[in-house]
Amino acid sequence: MKNKLIIYIGGLLQIIVLLLLWANASADNDVPDFFVPPPPFSEGIFPCTECHAEMEVNRTRRKLDFHEDIVLKHAEEQRWCLDCHNPDNRDKLRLASGELISFEKSYYLCGQCHGTHFRDWKAGIHGKRTGYWNDRKQYRLCVHCHNPHQPRFKPLKPLPPPLSPEDIKYNRSPDNEIPKNPLNSLIQAEIKNGPEKK
Q1: Which of 15, 22, 111, 193 gets the most CB atoms within 10 Å of its CB?
Q2: Contact by Cβ (8 Å): 4, 107
Q3: Could you tell me if 84 and 94 are in contact, meaning their C-beta atoms sit under 8 angstroms apart?
Q4: How far apart are the C-alpha atoms of 101 and 113, rounded to whole Å?
Q5: Which ranges in the chain belong to alpha helices (H)?
Q6: What is the pLDDT of residue 73?
């Protein structure tokens, strides 16, 4: 009886240890395996080490000489280039923990500050995702929609409202063929027969 109890307790402890290891592994890798297209780099600037490999790292906040087209409008009082871009290997991004990640995994960098958007993105609520329910999904990175240096969308100029059917003017073709308007057959009849006389 005592041996059975020891075997039972030993088996139970092994199951608990395996469950803890499995839970820890899944917590570290909470983003599912999926395909992400490469980030939309500006042409001719990646890999960054082509220019930055021989440069001495200057951590002073300043106006840049080369990347003058980049204007930071993203917590610019608290952030600067080297808060996200790794100073020692410019082909990598740097998390707050110091861990280096590739540009293809930039969602981890964005998720450090934008946790609710990151959670929603992983669940498929935020951002664009393509693929079928039973096939591999294709996610879009944050930078496919948002400029990482100015992530807020620029305002769009509104277009005029669409024309109502009665405002549509038809040009009769030479053979008096009437273009079809599937939206309103009454307009078709009026054009063909003229207005109804009362």
Answers
A1: 111
A2: no
A3: yes
A4: 16
A5: 2-28, 49-52, 81-84, 106-113, 115-123, 142-145, 185-193
A6: 78
Nearest to 145 by CA among 126, 119, 124, 120: 126
- Predicted local distance difference test score (pLDDT) of residue 139: 83
Q: What are phi and psi of 159, to 5 degrees?
A: -85, 160
Q: CB of 130 within 8 A of CB of 137?
A: yes
Distance between CA atoms of residues 198 and 85, nearest Å: 76
Q: Which two tokens stand for residue 121?
A: 């993105």
Question: Could you tell me which of 136, 112, 116 has the C-alpha nearest to residue 125?
Answer: 116
Half-sphere exposure of 40 (CA within 13 A, CB side): 9
Which residue type occupies 145?
C
Are the C-beta atoms of residues 144 and 128 closer than 8 Å to each other?
yes
Angstrom distances, CA of residue 61 to CA of 19, 57, 174: 48, 12, 70
Pair of tokens at residue 160: 């005029």
Of the given ranges (60-64, 87-91, 136-140, 183-187), which has the lowest mean pLDDT? 183-187
Element (H, E) at 130: strand 129-130
Region 104-122: mean pLDDT is: 90
pLDDT score of 68: 72
Report the C-alpha gap between 51 and 91 in whole angstroms: 11
